[in-house]
Amino acid sequence: MLIIGIAGGTGCGKTTVVNQILNELPEGEVGILSQDSYYKDTSHLSFAERVKINFDHPRSIDFELLTTHLQELKNGKAIHQPVYSFVKHNRTGDTILTHPRKVMIVEGILVLSNPELRDMFDIKVFVHADTDERLIRRLKRDISERGRDLEEVLNRYQTTLKPMHNQFIEPMKEFADIIIPNNKYNTVAIDIVRTIITQKL
Ligand SMILES: Nc1ncnc2c1ncn2[C@@H]1O[C@H](COP(=O)(O)OP(=O)(O)O)[C@@H](O)[C@H]1O
Ligand SMILES: Nc1ccn([C@@H]2O[C@H](COP(=O)(O)O)[C@@H](O)[C@H]2O)c(=O)n1
């Protein structure tokens, strides 16, 4: 199994890059684990308490479950990937049955920040987009898709997202094998990653 880790700040385009990589590849050959699925279960908290969580700090992620799941996939076993709701700030209780594939992609803002997880990656990718570009994308996406308003996004950006990005995400570029510049759609970089994957299939 070839395991590719794809990191980068919120709004840099990780999900978009993954979807572009998957386009034109045979269906069912590449599996995805999303770090967002592994936000810790917060069922014991009220909604008002959940809103206050720092979702950009590594402690908000259940890395133990994520690495266990990746190891199980490596061992040829299927796993039940949790489904996360950005509207409820919690897992939904549903899971997606995820089968082991020849190539597994693990994507998320902090996937290069956890040493155990990082060591499992054969190829480490960092997607870069400028800070202002990411904030604009995040604003548009969170308002249209994640049930947020301008005030919520900007407040979270100033209080937690920006400092956590500088502390835990940006320095992870150091570990990357490939850095994809993604201020604009980057078809050349996507083709390169797709070629690496195709060689493995
Ligand atoms: N290269 C790009 N140029 C313009 N918009 C982009 C680009 N890549 C992604 N987007 C848009 O930015 C938003 C955030 O992208 P997404 O892939 O969800 O980022 P991430 O998964 O890194 O948070 C989405 O609305 C997406 O359509
Ligand atoms: N309940 C939550 C959980 C996470 N976030 C934000 O999501 C960002 C990571 O997801 P991307 O798809 O943008 O990579 C992260 O910056 C968290 O702030 C949230 O807003 N609410």
TrEMBL record:
User: Pathway, per Swiss-Prot/TrEMBL?
Assistant: Pyrimidine metabolism; UMP biosynthesis via salvage pathway; UMP from uridine: step 1/1; Pyrimidine metabolism; CTP biosynthesis via salvage pathway; CTP from cytidine: step 1/3
Against InterPro entries, the record matches this protein to:
P-loop_NTPase, PRK/URK, Uridine_kinase-like
Keywords of the record: ATP-binding, Cytoplasm, Kinase, Nucleotide-binding, Transferase
Localization, per the record, is: Cytoplasm
Give yes or no: UniProt keyword Protease: no
Instruction: Give the SUPFAM superfamilies listed for this entry.
Output: P-loop containing nucleoside triphosphate hydrolases
The UniProt catalytic activity note for this protein reads:
cytidine + ATP = CMP + ADP + H(+); uridine + ATP = UMP + ADP + H(+)
Q: Where is the Phosphoribulokinase/uridine kinase domain?
A: 3-188
Gene3D superfamilies, alphabetically?
Answer: P-loop containing nucleotide triphosphate hydrolases
One Pfam assignment: PRK
Q: EC annotation?
A: 2.7.1.48
Q: Which PANTHER family match?
A: URIDINE KINASE
Q: Which family does it belong to?
A: Belongs to the uridine kinase family.
Q: Tell me the protein's name.
A: Uridine kinase
Gene symbol here is udk
